[in-house]
Design goal:
- Chain B: It comes from Pseudohalocynthiibacter aestuariivivens.
- Chain B: It is a multi-pass membrane protein.
- Chain B: Its main location: membrane.
- The complex is a heterotrimer of chains A (246), B (391) and C (649).
- Chain A has one domain: P-loop containing nucleotide triphosphate hydrolases (Rossmann fold, 3-Layer(aba) Sandwich), CATH 3.40.50.
- In chain A, 37% of the residues lie in helices and 26% in strands.
- Chain A has ten helices and ten strands.
- In chain A, the strands form two sheets. Chain A has a six-stranded mixed sheet with strand order 6-7-8-3-9-10, with helices on both faces. A four-stranded antiparallel sheet of chain A has the order 2-1-4-5, covered by helices on one side.
- The longest helix of chain A is centred in the middle third of the chain and has 14 residues.
- Chain B has 391 residues and is an all-alpha fold.
- In chain B, 72% of the residues lie in helices and 2% in strands.
- Chain B is built from 15 helices and four strands.
- In chain B, β3 and β4 form a beta hairpin.
- By secondary structure, chain C is an alpha+beta fold.
- Chain C folds into four domains: 118 residues, no CATH class; 85 residues; 110 residues, no CATH class; 223 residues, no CATH class.
- Chain C is built from 26 helices and 13 strands.
- The longest helix of chain C has 50 residues.
- The radius of gyration of chain C is 38 Å and the shape is extended.
- Chain C starts with a helix and ends in a 15-residue tail after the last helix.
- Classes of the chains: A alpha/beta (246), B mainly alpha (391), C alpha+beta (649).
- At the A-C interface, loops of A face loops of C.
Chain lengths: 246, 391, 649
Amino acid sequence: MSTLLEVSGVTVSFDGFRAINNLSFQIADAELRAVIGPNGAGKTTFMDIVTGKTRPDEGHILWGDKSISLIGMSEAKIAQAGIGRKFQKPTVFEEQTVQENLMMALRKDRAPLAVLFFKPSKTDFACVEELADQIGLADAFLRVSGELSHGQKQWLEIGMLLAQEPQLLLVDEPAAGMTPAEREKTTAILVDAAKTRAVVVVEHDMEFVRRLNCKVTVLHEGAVLAEGSLDHVTKNQDVIDVYLGR
Amino acid sequence: MNRSFIARNPSVLIFLAILALFTLGVTVLSEGFGIGLISTSFVKVLGKTLCLCLIAIAMDLIWGYTGILSLGHFAFFGLGGYMLGMWLMYERTRQIVVNSLSDGVLPPTPEEVTTGIGNQIFGVVGSSDFPLIWTFADSLVLQLAFVVLVPGILALVFGWLAFRSRVTGVYLSILTQAMTLGLSLYLFQNASGLRGNNGLSGLQNLPGITAPQSVVSLWFFWASALVLGLGYLLVAWIVSGKFGSVIRGIRDNEARVRFLGYSVETYKLAVFTLTACISGIAGALYYPQAGIINPAEVAPIASIYLAVWVAIGGRGRLYGAVIGTAFVSLVSSWFTGGQAPDVPLGFYTVKWVDWWLVLLGLCFVLVTLYAPNGIGGLIDLLKRKRKETDA
Amino acid sequence: MKTLLLALCFALPFGHFAIAQTTPVQDVLQSQRALIEKSSRRTIGPAIDALVASGLPQMQTVLEIWQAKEMWQRKADGLFFVATKNADGTYTLRNFESGADVGTAASTDLRQLKPNSGVRAMIATALVQFQLSDPDPAKRADALNSISRDPQAALMAPLRASVQGETDPNILSRKIRLERLMTMAYDTSVPNRVAAIIEMSGDLGVDFRATLNPILSTTRVLAQTQPDANIAQEVIAGSDALTRKAAYALLVAAGDAPAEITADARDAALQANIEGGRIAGFPVAQLSTEAARDRAYDALVSGDLARPRVTQADIDASLANFRFFDVYTEPSQTVTTAAEDALAASETRVAISQAADLGLDALSLASIYFLAAIGLAITFGVMGVINMAHGEFIMMGAYTGYVVQLFVPNHTASILIAVPLAFAVTFAAGVALERLVVRWLYHRPLETLLATFGVSIALQQLAKNIFGTQARPLTSPAWLDGAWTINDVVSISYIRIAIFILALLFLALFLFIMKRTRLGLETRAVTQNPKMAASMGINPDRVNMLTFGLGSGIAGIAGVAIGLFAKVTSEMGSDYIVQSFMTVVVGGVGNIWGTLAGAAMIGGFQKGVEFLNPSNTLAAQTYMIIFIIIFIQFRPRGIIALKGRAAGD
């Protein structure tokens, strides 16, 4: 398996506070990875850096087979390069229907003129419907997404990410506020998605991480504390110290 | 594409039908071509209102759909007016000067004509030389192009600077207001080359046209109605498709759109520039009907009124913007024109000339607080009610 | 006995000549009688000199009376008196020494001395030396003022003479300074003049530069060879200082060259020679271009019907014969050289002082912006509420001051009342606005902007309805009039100093409230996390209300301050609102030091532009706005920016 994303030696500080401290991280094609860590460990900032929202003070971020540097690229360019991001809170366009939401996310030319003259073809409609089916929203296809339940919005957002056909999915706390049944479904969607692309899940909930059954990276104070299987890291003394206090 | 778009948006057809009927009605009732029930000055008022509706549509596109509360679109409106006004004033003055010079013994030379025009136009600001910006004032085609290009380029440069540095929300509003203030202060100077606070005048006279104002006013009225119809169609088409989806997405959640891979700044810039061009066209049609344009027209307050109209009409719906603008601007001119009856309270007489703005201000507060979707929101509510009773 | 006799004599209608005569003053006057009677500017000089030379202390009074046309001469004996008209048409005569009544006379027996303006000026000059030594310091100062207003060579000697006996140190230093200046201009000895100039070289005073400038005045002369005079420089025709056109005009004016044929002259000649619709063979209708008219004129010239045109070659030839010189009016080169050096030294120092003055101007403008913006720094900067009616709160404060002055005429007292009252009024207005409008719109900034804009429209029109459209005065106390003058270039009015101090006070107040009081702590807590603050027992409603009221109240006080130097109108708020928001945004939202820096930068920039282009303050504002838009490119979050996640998106 080749390396898809390589983060090396990245440091970010805000007003003297080091949110990310010499962080190095790698992920391969079609890999599912969970990132855990206590509050303030730098999980969200890590995502901000990869997606171009925050520019690191030092370090390299290399992407894909051609090892393109992501530093300095705009968010939109990075997204077009194949990195999808899901926010902690479900963010869908609440005044638009599920269909419109998915159609907007569909992998197409994003230039304004192309979008202006865009007319969805039959395959586009089919593709969107299939996605809705995949995330369990086929019944709500023409509903305004603001009317959906919390869990449904989360799925819709994941569906939008899938519509983008990214090579790497960054998912921030997908299971927060979900019922057990919903969690199970979310797990299934993510595991399924990870078959064809890399998926990084940031999560607090150990139970959920256990279900993902994948390699785990523990962040602490902006750096990697431990990496390995969940059982491996939970036995690590440093991790126990960090989570339970000294 | 268009057929399906119209089919999906029946309101566009309804609007166009009403506009056509209205135009026909005004024509039949006018002095120029009809039975004379509507005076020429009122035809001008109606024509101007149509132009205001056009800029309101632009405002709705940038604010209601894209979520950028621009307090600068009247600056573009004014610039459009100035651009056409320059040609109107130049050409009319040229004809007057040529006429008066041809009474002399020697036939006038081009230099004498130019100096004469310069004296006529710039005498009020103590000059007779043509400023550089008047270089093309003799060409109708170029000045018409400037009607679109000058506001467009200003919007492009300003928007590029503002959006690039991710100025959003109220900060952007204030920045656009500052731009408007800067422009109006600039125009107030005699050195601006646009006659300072005298502005351009006599614009109601079309050079070389001898038809009476009652007829000319109808020409402008028709042109305004036509352009409003086209503008409505264009904007309705833009917002109906995927582009509309994207800009509404920008309005509701800019970051999400960005992480979907859309270059939010480019979209904003495109919409900002397009609406500036539409505003310029609206202004170019408005000021020949008003007869005069001066820097006060460009003052920040005008742009804020535009926001008021659109908000009262209901933003995010094109017909809302049109209804709000037509309603508020006509009612305003009725109240402030002195036609509204005063209200005697015994101890004090409420003169509407004085109190209309107080009432408008308070109404606006109430609309913002209790009816954020304005008049259009009420129509939506009625439609939904009817659907529910149907079902 | 003798007094009785005297009294009797005076009582007679026609005074007894023998008694009321020979006082020392009258003697001197009589000795110059012929000249005084003739009273002509050319001849009066010796007479005035003689009067002055008599050394009599009363002579000053005499000259003043003479100058004021109150001196009369009795025809019968030629004696001079002061005369005042009585109710019955006769005149009462008094002597010059004591003003004692010395009789009455009918107007037919008297002759009024009416010195003409030339003579009066000479009397005034003579008087100056008395005034310069007058016991009353105010009169001495007046005399100095009149000399410096209109210096004359003749006044130099009396001035020098009066320096010796001067006791008042202020007046003494003024006298010495004036003496030096007059020495430069009028002394007959070149070394003396040069010494005076060198002594004062680099002085900043306007009077110094005003004295040097006439010494350095030049006239432009044309000559074929270099003239024998104090030449400042040779001017080359065709340079920036003298265009060839202007040089030729000089030749024409001096009669050394023929004038060019202007377009008007050419056209007049053409019109005078129309024959049967043709001019020199050209049909009139064809003369619709400059070139065609030139050709027709040339044809007239060759027919000897018009004067030949002056061609470029003619001009070149004429100019080649002459050189142009700027020649000093002042003949002594030593003096002009010294003056040039002294003026250059002064100008360097003046430039430095002007920079300092500009700095002070900028500082005071910055204080005004800061004052206008500090209320916003609270409502917008800390609370994040866009209040477009902020400008109208400033206006309300100013009108409160105006109303207080209607009831309390004492300006000091009225300002002292107006400040707290303005705070109370706008605090109440702010609280009402917060309760009725703003609190429903927290976290919907665009809606807040619109709603408060509606309030702003209503308040503005309301003020117009109540107070009318004309500007109302808000007068500052007398002790704030005037200016603190550092030198002739640098000065700052007291009112601007007061505003600067007020701005500092507000800054201190703001810091104190935000950092040291419970309200400040609660405000910061509520703005950062309202839910958490509420769960800790803080009532967010109350805190928001008070904070908004505080910001509005400060705007009210700022209104009083701004009203003191600007006009109070219903539109004054909208003049400040954009600048105020700019100040806060440029400085960095949420940081009072940022607001201060923003005000300083905007004030400084605007004054800087005004300095470069002093005629146009409107342009300065336009440039300032362009500058702000560009500045935001580089620091989108302002000068002092909150960084990181705390800044939010």
